[in-house]
Amino acid sequence: MARSLMETLSVLQWIVVFFTMGISCTFLTGYLLFTPLWPLSVLYLTWLIIDWNTPERGGRRSQWVRRWRMWRYMRDYFPVSLVKTAELSPERNYVLGHHPHGIMCFGAICNFCTESTDFSKLFPGITPFVATLHGIFRLPIYRDYVLSAGLCSVSKSSLSYLLSKKGTGNAVIIVVGGAAESMTGKPGEHSLLLKNRKGFIRLAVAHGADLVPIYSFGENDAFDQVIFEPGSWMKWLQLNFQKYMGFAPCLFKGCGLLFSNTWGLMPFARPVMTVVGEPIPVTQNPNPSEDEINRYHNKYQEAITILFNKYKVQYGLSESAELTIY
Fold first, then answer.
1. How far apart are CA 119 and CA 89, in angstroms?
2. pLDDT above 70 covers what percent of the chain?
3. What is the pTM of this model?
């Protein structure tokens, strides 16, 4: 009972952080400026200006934060597991494509932003950097929290820096489908927004970083999402938020905090199995042609499909389950 409570609370804290910490810390910092505690805000904002470019220069991870016991409780809530299929050499750099996005990316968070599944032991000499929206690093205090977990900006300059200025053994994790893919994920769905997503391929070729496909089975099963009909005002709202803000508001439901048979914002306790595929060797070319990009993109699509088909039964899917790429 006590362990179950700790698992629930660990997931709850991440949900609170995910949805409220950024905006609440921004308001708190502004509010303190008009109180006797204004020097605290001034000192922090001064630090923020000095530290402004850190998210684009490899971030600032904290192994202490990444190893918090809380993350292991969060892992066990689902549970989340990490499957290694091949070695990743510390002598190379990598661009890892994570699929699918889901609502809250529990697979990517547990496996690559924490040590709850022992990433550093499975892949010794490899340092993971999860790339996320650049805008969140402008939110005071929240930015420092996510930086400590190993997140960095998904901007081109940030990723190029990681793959060219920090030596080897760096693994950039990009959730390729992004916000647009999150709008279509629902339990039992295995579809990826990938067909026209080639920026991560271009990045890998430009820096000679090997491509690695990742599939998180169960990522879409964490919540039951409402899929809006094309042409509806909610779909219009989603698309415009995704286009101009970089994220898409989703209407979803999970289970209750105290009773799993009631509706709420807690994710369903369903297994998430994240499988890291074999690296696809990439030859560096700073100015690749479209044919070269398409060739690597086709190889990548084949690799993620093979990975899905190889591990779907082990996860518990039927032999007839298919992966759709659109």
1. 14
2. 92
3. 0.92
